[in-house]
Design brief:
120 residues, mainly beta, 3-stranded antiparallel beta sheet, 6 strands
């Protein structure tokens, strides 16, 4: 017969660690796209979003997704009018165009590969 412990100490205790040290906070699934950047804009008619550090790979390896609650309700739209790479070929910025200045736009950038790999 094995020893067991109801208090969590002693010979029969479970040998595991709770909290951030168990790797759950750093788990990255390897088979789905990932959000790599996100934010909100209070736009002028056109607004450029420049990343603090360019994202690895060309802009063709990323999708920029926009949504705007007030503009959509009023029948207006927000579109990505340009995506640009830096001199090294990494995704550096994108430009958002709206029909009405002042529309709040929420955006996210998602890689188009599997896991953390970007496909161009």
């Amino acid at each position: 017969m094995g020893a067991s412990s109801v208090t969590g100490v002693g010979q029969g205790r479970a040998n595991h660690q709770k909290g951030p040290g168990n790797g759950r906070n750093y788990f990255v699934p390897s088979v789905n796209p990932h959000v790599v950047a996100a934010g909100t804009l209070d736009t002028a008619v056109t607004t450029t979003v420049t990343f603090p550090n360019a994202l690895t790979g060309s802009e063709t390896g990323y999708a920029v997704i926009l949504t705007t609650e007030a503009a959509a309700a009023a029948g207006r739209s927000a579109v990505v009018s340009a995506k640009t790479d830096d001199a090294s070929g990494n995704f550096e910025s994108f430009t958002v165009a709206v029909e009405n200045a002042g529309d709040d736009v929420m955006w996210m950038v998602v890689n188009s590969g599997y896991g953390l790999e970007v496909t161009a």
